[in-house]
Amino acid sequence: MTLFNLEQGNIPEQAHVFARVMGEERLVILSGFNDKPLRVKIKLSDEVVQAFTLKAEQDYLGRDLLRSGTDIGLDKSWTFEVDLTPYTSYIFKIK
Description:
By secondary structure, the chain is mainly beta. Helix content is 13%, strand content 45%. It has a 5-stranded antiparallel beta sheet with strand order 1-2-7-4-5, with no helix packed on it.
């Protein structure tokens, strides 16, 4: 998903994002190698939406498993925004 979001202009080159799915567990992992705080927008690719078996009529939230206290919500275009503090990683479990 890094290249997809770079091409969309959603993230800088200092950010890396990817997705993993196993059964019902859906994860979005975001890591920043930035030295200043950034606001980034992450859009799930069609491939990820299909792998996650997301449904347009349902709401989805993500909680950071690294206990940062950061939660995200996917909008109807499968996008979320988050503040990426310097040298930080998030593992969002999508439910």
